[in-house]
C-alpha cells in the first residue's frame, strides 16, 4: 500500500471535512506562504500534500526545540497550572462545547501560566490546538456531515491571525538593518549567518531527502510511479524556506535587537531566497510532467466532486 503523500489524497479524508487541498494549504500559509506560492499551479497534489505535511511537522519540531532548549528557569507550579487548564480546555472541546466565554479565558490563562513557567508560551498554543477534535462526532452526523471543530475554529480565527497577528509579528521581528553592501558583507561573514544559510539550503535537503529515502527503503511506502526523486529534491529545497519560526528561534538564541540577531535575520532571508531559487530551477525542469499529471487529476467524469484518479475503478 502506498502512502497518501505518494498517491494523492484519500477519499475518506476528503469526505471528512477536508474537501480539497485548498483549505488545508491555507492553514499553513501564515508561516509557509513562500513555499505555497511557489507550488501553486500545476504541481501534483501528491507533492503539495507532502510539502504541507512537511511544513506542519517541521514547525512542530521547532516548537519542541524551543520548549526543550530555550527554557532556562522552570517554575513547576505555573507549569502544572497550565497543564491543568489545557486539560480542562480539552475536555470542553472534546464534548463539543464552543462557547467563547469559556474557551477564550481558558486559552489566555493557559498562555499566561505557560509563560510564567519559563517555557515559551507558543507551546501552550500548540497543546491547545492538539486538543481540538478534527472530525465531527457521531452524534453530529459523523465525518460525512461536514467539517469538524478544528476547521470551524480555523475559519473563525483566520482573519484575526492573518490580518493582525502575523503582520504585527513580521513588522516587529523581520526588520533587517543591512547597512548597504558593506553591512550585508559583514553580516554574511558572520559564522552564525553562514551556518543558517548552509542549514537551510543543504541541511534541510540532506535531512528530508535522507529520511524520505530511508522510509522508502525500509518500509512499504513507495514513491509514486509518476514521480521521480528529482521531484522530492525540489520539495526538499522548498523546505529550506523559513520565516516566522526561524526568526523566533534566532531571537530567542541571541536576544532581540542584538547585532548578531540582525545577522541571523540576514542569514534566514538569504538562505530562504537561495532555497527558493534552487527549488524553482529544479521543479521548473519537470513542468511538462506536472502539467500532464495536473490534467489527469482534474478529470471528474462522474461529477461527484472527487477526481476520478483518487477513486477505485469498478471491476
Structure characteristics:
single chain, 315 residues, mainly alpha, 69% helix, 0% strand, disordered N terminus
Quick gist of this model?
Helices cover 69% and strands 0% of the residues. It is an all-alpha fold and 315 residues long.
Secondary structure: elements and pairs:
Elements: H1 4-7, H2 11-14, H3 21-26, H4 29-38, H5 45-69, H6 76-94, H7 100-117, H8 122-131, H9 149-173, H10 180-189, H11 191-218, H12 229-238, H13 244-254, H14 259-284, H15 287-297
Helix pairs in contact: 5-13, 6-7, 6-8, 7-8, 9-13, 10-14, 11-12, 11-14, 12-14, 13-14
Q: Please outline the major beta sheet.
A: none
Distance between the termini: 19 Å
Spatial shape: flat
Give the helices and strands as they follow along the chain: HHHHHHHHHHHHHHH
Structural class: mainly alpha
Gyration radius over CA: 21 Å
By DSSP (H or I, 4+ residues per run), the number of helices equals 15
Query: Percent range for helical residues?
Result: 55-70%
pLDDT averaged over residues:
78
Q: How many beta strands in the DSSP annotation? A: 0
Q: What fraction of residues sit in β-strands?
A: under 5%
Low-confidence stretches: 1-33
Description:
The chain has 315 residues and is mainly α. It has 15 helices and no strands. The chain has helices spanning 4-7, 11-14, 21-26, 29-38, 45-69, 76-94, 100-117, 122-131, 149-173, 180-189, 191-218, 229-238, 244-254, 259-284, 287-297. Helix 5 runs parallel beside helix 13 (244-254), helix 6 packs parallel to helix 8 (122-131) and helix 11 runs antiparallel to helix 12. The longest helix has 28 residues, at 191-218. It is flat.
Amino acid at each position: 500500500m502506498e502512502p497518501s503523500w505518494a498517491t494523492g489524497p484519500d477519499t475518506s479524508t476528503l469526505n471528512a471535512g477536508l474537501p480539497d487541498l485548498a483549505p488545508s494549504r491555507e492553514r499553513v500559509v501564515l508561516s509557509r506562504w513562500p513555499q505555497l506560492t511557489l507550488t501553486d499551479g500545476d504541481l501534483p497534489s501528491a507533492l503539495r500534500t507532502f510539502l504541507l505535511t512537511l511544513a506542519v511537522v517541521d514547525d512542530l519540531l521547532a516548537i519542541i526545540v524551543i520548549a526543550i532548549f530555550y527554557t532556562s528557569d522552570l517554575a513547576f507550579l505555573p507549569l502544572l497550572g497550565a497543564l491543568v487548564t489545557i486539560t480542562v480546555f480539552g475536555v470542553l472541546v472534546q464534548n463539543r462545547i464552543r462557547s467563547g466565554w469559556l474557551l477564550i479565558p481558558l486559552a489566555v490563562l493557559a498562555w499566561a501560566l505557560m509563560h510564567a513557567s519559563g517555557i515559551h508560551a507558543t507551546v501552550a498554543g500548540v497543546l491547545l490546538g492538539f486538543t481540538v477534535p478534527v472530525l465531527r462526532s457521531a452524534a453530529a452526523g459523523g465525518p460525512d456531515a461536514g467539517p469538524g471543530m478544528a476547521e470551524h475554529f480555523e475559519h473563525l480565527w483566520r482573519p484575526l491571525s492573518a490580518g493582525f497577528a502575523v503582520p504585527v509579528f513580521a513588522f516587529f521581528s523581520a526588520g533587517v538593518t543591512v547597512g548597504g553592501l558593506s553591512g550585508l558583507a559583514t553580516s554574511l561573514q558572520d559564522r552564525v549567518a553562514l551556518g543558517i544559510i548552509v542549514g537551510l539550503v543543504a541541511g534541510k535537503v540532506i535531512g528530508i531527502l535522507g529520511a524520505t529515502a530511508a522510509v522508502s527503503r525500509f518500509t512499504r511506502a513507495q514513491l509514486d510511479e509518476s514521480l521521480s526523486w528529482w521531484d522530492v529534491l525540489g520539495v526538499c529545497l522548498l523546505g529550506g524556506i523559513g520565516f516566522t519560526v526561524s526568526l523566533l528561534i534566532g531571537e530567542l538564541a541571541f536576544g532581540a535587537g542584538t547585532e548578531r540577531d540582525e545577522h541571523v535575520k540576514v542569514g534566514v532571508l538569504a538562505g530562504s531566497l537561495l532555497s527558493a531559487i534552487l527549488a524553482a530551477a529544479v521543479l521548473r525542469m519537470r513542468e511538462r510532467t506536472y502539467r500532464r499529471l495536473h490534467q489527469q487529476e482534474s478529470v471528474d467524469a462522474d461529477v461527484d466532486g472527487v477526481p476520478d484518479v483518487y477513486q477505485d475503478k469498478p471491476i
